[in-house]
Design brief:
The structure is a homodimer.
Chain A: H1 13-20, H2 23-34, E1 40-41, H3 51-64, E2 67-72, E3 75-80, H4 82-88, H5 92-101
Antiparallel strand pairs in A: 1-3, 2-3
Chain A binds a DNA duplex (30 and 30 nucleotides) through helix 3.
Chain lengths: ~120, ~120
Amino acid sequence: MTLPHPNTDQISLPIVLGVLGDPTRLAIVRYLASKEGVPLNCSRFLDLGSKTNLSYHLAKLREAGVTRAEVVGTNRMITLRRADLDARFPGLLDSVIAAAADDAALPAVGGHDIEASA
Amino acid sequence: MTLPHPNTDQISLPIVLGVLGDPTRLAIVRYLASKEGVPLNCSRFLDLGSKTNLSYHLAKLREAGVTRAEVVGTNRMITLRRADLDARFPGLLDSVIAAAADDAALPAVGGHDIEASA
DNA sequence: TCCTTAGTTCAAAAGTTATTGAACAATTGG
DNA sequence: CCAATTGTTCAATAACTTTTGAACTAAGGA
């Protein structure tokens, strides 16, 4: 029940760039970066598209090596593969995230934060 | 006889990333970076595809704001828009070029250097 | 067990991008 | 003017990508 991920040395520059060249996926990466450390499940991104469509985009990100998906019960916990990307393409992720942070044209992941239920 | 270019603030992150997510275009950018300052005409890239196909890829790069094409006689002199890209997306181009420099999977622009004819 | 929640898979449709060749335009040199 | 050089445009096709809905799987809770 583990999903396929490329290992670090298999991550390809054109594939990563191509995958990030999509507003939906860039919005996902931007949101993941803003919540770094916190593992988020897929339904967090439902603002960005249908369940099916997100499954598609999240698979693209995972197959490119940009994210990692860990199966936890019926959930897939999604994290950015920051260390791997930094090792393979130093500075790339940082500059992409910094640029994406200011990009008003990107769709936003809404703020239905459940956190702090105490 | 000037070709259309976006101005700096019109350059879009997802479009730039998408355009760079293609091995042919990444190879063009890598080569331009390696010859920075030297304006190169389109036929420099003929190793990477047919004349028509290069016209297509070079137009994509230009329309995305990655390159500038200046008309000089029957030539289009192509340069990287490094200052504009650095202003808009600090660090992005550097990290892409550094990563592309080591990428053996990218096609190469051959070495038919004419230079130093003196 | 049955129901719900979370997400995937499949096939179809729609849309986009890449590649090709033939025809075209513009400039330069003879 | 004529021919060569440089690159574009156009239309066709091929190849991919995105989006959709319906059907499905797998785990967890009542």
